[in-house]
Amino acid sequence: MEKRSLKKYFAILLTFAIVLGTFSGPIPVSAATRKCYTISGSNTPVYSNSGLTNRYGTIYGSDELTVLVVTGSYSRVQYPISGGRTKTGYIRTSAILTATSGSSYKASARITTYRRPGGASYGYISRNDTVTVLGKSGNYTQVKYPVSGGYKYAFVQTASVQQYLTGSANNSDNSSGNVAVIANGTYVLKSALHNNKVLDADGGSSVKNGTNIHLWSYNGGDNQKYTISHVGSGWYKIICKWGNKALDVTGAKKGNEVNVELWDWNGGDHQLWKFVPAGNGYYYIQSKLGYDLDVWNNGTADGTNVQTYQFNGGDNQKWKLECVSNAKASSNQADALVNMAKSQVGTSERSVNSDDIFYNDWYYGRRVNNSSGWYPWCAVFVSWCANQAGITDRVIPKTASTRVMKDGLISRGGIAHAKTSGYVPIHGDIIFFGNNADQHVGIVDYTSGNTVYYIDGNNTSTTPHSVRRSSCSLTNGNIWGYVTPAYES
Question: Kindly report the CA angle at 73 between 67 and 77, in degrees rounded to 5?
Fold first, then answer.
C-alpha cells in the first residue's frame, strides 16, 4: 500500500476511535485549547455517549481537563487516566461551566484565578487580557481567559470582577459578595500612595467634634489608631482611639470632595462604612452615603486632606489595615498555644501516610501506625500543643477525636460559634471542619479580610502528612464553625 493510502487509512481509524470516545492517546484538537477543572471537586461520572446514559469512567477533583466540545447539556472532554494516558468522554456541562457564554471585558489589572470556588490558585489574568465573564458561584465568578496556546475556564473573586473587569464595583453596589469581613479590632489605616502615610486626625491640643481627617506620616499616636467594629449587614463603625469619636462625613452630604472629620457616634449613614477588597491586602472604604474614602489629588504630603469621592479604583482610594490590637484580646494561653503550633510547622510522619508520628507516640504512650489500625492525629496535635504550652485538660481536652475535642471544649466553658452566625474567628480559636465537626480541626492564628489562617496537624495535602500553615475562605462550605476555649488567665 502506498504511503498516501496508509496515511488516509490511519486517519480514518483515528477519527473512528475519537468518535467512540475510546482512544487513550493524545487527541489532536484545535490550537486554541480550553483547560479547566470540575467545579465541585468531587468525583464526576463520564459517559461514552452524548445522551449521558452509558457510564464510562470517572473524573477526579485533581484532574485537569481539556474541553473539546461544549453544548447546553453535555460537553466532550479529554481527561487523564493511569500511566500518563488520556481518555475522552462526555460529562454534564454543568460539571465544568456555570454558563456557556457571557459578555467580554478588558482586564484593568492582574487578577488571580482559582481552579474552583475557594480552591487552589490556577494562574492569573494579565492586565489588558480580554476576559469572558460567565456565571457566579457564591463569592466567586467563573471566567474564560487567554493563556499560551488557548484558554482556561477558572474562577475569580466576584469583587475582582466588579473592580477590574465589569467596572461595577460602584458606590451603590452593596451586595454581600462585594463586602469584606473585617475582624473587630484596632487598626492603623495605611494609604496605598505611600507605605508610611496613614489616616490621621488633626493632632491639636484636644479632640472635638469636627476634628479634621487628613494624611500624615506614621508616628504611633492614638490619633492614628481606629477601632473598627461590625454593626450589621456588612457595615462598620470606625472610632478614633483619640477621643473615642467616629469617622464621619461632614454634614451627611453626598458628593465629591466632601470633607471627612471626627464626630460623636450617632449611627447615621454618614458614620457607616464597608470594606471592599482592592487586591494585595488593600481595601476600598465606602461610605453608606455612596462615596469612597479618598486622598485629595493623590497627594502624599503631611496634611493632605481626606475626603469622599466617587469610586475610581485609584491608589488614593486604597487602604491597608494594619492591626494594632484585637478588640477581643486573646489570653497568654491563646498566644502560647498558637506559638507552639507555629513551632511545629513542617513536622511530618515518619513515612508516607502512616500516622507514624511522635504526637501519636505521646497520646497512645507507644509508637503506632496504620498497619494495625487507624490513628488520625489532627486532634491529637491540638491536645499536644496545649499540653506543651502548659494548658491543662481543664481548658483543652486530650483526645484523638475532633467531635470529642469540640464537645469537650464547650463542656469546659468554651464558646461555640457556628459558621452561619457571621462570627469572625480570632487568635487562639479552634476551627472545625465537617458537618458534625468530625472531619478535621486546627488552631486559628488570625483572620484577614474573608480568609481565616490556621495551623493544622495531619494535613493530607502534604506527602507525608504534616503540620502546615493553612487558610481558607470564611465561606468555605466544609467549615463547621469555631470554639473559643475558656482560657485561664
Answer: 20
348-355 own/partner pairs: CB under 8 Å, 24+ apart = 348/462, 348/464, 348/465, 348/466, 348/467, 349/464, 349/465, 349/466, 350/464, 351/464, 352/463, 352/464, 353/463, 353/464, 353/465, 354/464, 355/458, 355/465
The percent of residues above 70 in pLDDT, for the chain, comes to 88
pLDDT digits (tens, 9 = 90+) for 2-23: 545 555 555 555 444 444 444 4
| Pairwise pLDDT comparison (51 vs 13), residue with the higher score | 51
Q: Cell digits for 79?
A: 481527561
First and final C-alpha spacing in the chain:
90
Kindly provide the residue ranges of all beta strands, DSSP E only, lying in 273-364, ordered along the sequence. Answer: 273-279, 282-287, 292-295, 306-309, 319-326
| Location of C-alpha cell 511545629 | 344
Torsion sign, CA atoms 452, 456, 461, 462:
positive
Question: Would you state the cell numbers that stand for residue 363, as one nine-digit string?
Answer: 497520646
How far apart (Å, rounded) are the C-alpha atoms in residues 398 and 209? 54
Cβ(479)–Cβ(473) under 8 Å? no
The grid coordinates of residue 99 equal: 454558563
Query: Can you read off the three cell numbers belonging to residue 40?
Result: 465541585
Distance of CA 386 to the CA centre of its chain: 27
Locate 442 and state its grid cell. 486546627
Phi, psi dihedrals of residue 241, rounded to the nearest 5°: -65, -25
d(CA 152, CA 123): 9
Pairwise CA distance, residues 189 & 224, whole Å: 8
Biggest CA-to-CA distance, the chain:
100
Q: Letter for the amino acid at 228?
A: I
R_g (Cα) of the chain, nearest Å: 27
3-state DSSP assignment of residue 168: coil
Residues comprising the chain, all counted:
489
Alpha-carbon gap, residue 121 to 129, rounded angstroms: 18
At 235-283, the pLDDT tens digits run 889 999 998 999 999 999 999 999 999 999 999 999 999 998 887 778 8
What are the pLDDT digits (tens) for 84-106?
899 999 999 999 998 888 888 88
Give 3-state DSSP helix, strand, coil % of the chain, rounded to 5: 20, 35, 45
